[in-house]
Amino acid sequence: MSASDAPQFLLTNDDGIESPGFRALYDALSEIGEVVAVAPADDQSAVGRKLSRRVEVREHDLGYAIAGTPADCAVAGLESLCPDADMVVAGCNKGANIGAYVLGRSGTVSAAVEAAFFGVPAMAVSLYVPGGSGDDWRRKASSVDDYRGAAAATRYLAERATDAGVFAEADYLNVNAPWTPGGRATRMEVTRPSTLYDMTAERDGDHVELIDRTWDRMETGEIPDPVGTDRRAVVEGRISVSPLTAPHTTRHHEALDGLADDYDPEAVARASDD
């Protein structure tokens, strides 16, 4: 591929521009194209698609550091700082972004969703780091080399997915790599988001602690997720790739049709006044 044919990647994340997972993807994608970093200046994990009205932009050795969220970065990048990007890649996040309930919370995934609304192919990339719901996992995945397997899979998909027609069907890919010694490469599986939901809440005086039990399940391997789901693939040591669409899907619903047809605004107004 000639230099003029090389793709341009807008690279963002939610762990911050200085994170090792971000650098791993930057290095891997730089081998196949031009990479422009438009990433949060600091940690913006789990902010979802939170959007700002105005953000500070600071030039960085890798591109631009933004005092804002991953969604801010996608909009600012595609509209102003990197408008010719052929693909947006978000990651590599420290910690898996798997399960249907996680997708709306994740800043990493939200950057890819934002890009999809611009009509730009996107990938969200995360590394599962075992450690349950405690703090043990914070000490892991602190080196660029820990993300080697995830970065290799990202490069593979970035090189091939568009020409293969993947984005004719999917708006973005949610990629989750398992933890492997030294970032060793492993197999890849096309998956769907798991619907397992195991959030609990425990009251402690004036506080309520919200706990996601799925991480403890994953550490022990005792998960009910069926074959073909993202969590099952990652727990069993495979790279999960879920092809997803950005708009919320709708389905014809006759019961709702009946409610809409029977709706009498005057009767509802009278009932509200009574």
From TrEMBL:
It comes from Halobaculum gomorrense. Keywords: Cytoplasm, Hydrolase, Metal-binding, Nucleotide-binding. Nucleotidase that shows phosphatase activity on nucleoside 5'-monophosphates. A divalent metal cation binds at residues 14-15, 45, 93. Its EC number is 3.1.3.5. PANTHER family: 5'-NUCLEOTIDASE SURE (PTHR30457), PHOSPHATASE, PUTATIVE (AFU_ORTHOLOGUE AFUA_4G01070)-RELATED (PTHR30457:SF0). This is 5'-nucleotidase SurE. It catalyses: a ribonucleoside 5'-phosphate + H2O = a ribonucleoside + phosphate. Residues 10-194 form the Survival protein SurE-like phosphatase/nucleotidase domain. Its cofactor is a divalent metal cation. InterPro entries: SurE, SurE-like_Pase/nucleotidase, SurE-like_sf. It is found in: Cytoplasm. GO terms for molecular function: 5'-nucleotidase activity; metal ion binding; nucleotide binding. GO terms for cellular component: cytoplasm. Binds 1 divalent metal cation per subunit. Belongs to the SurE nucleotidase family.
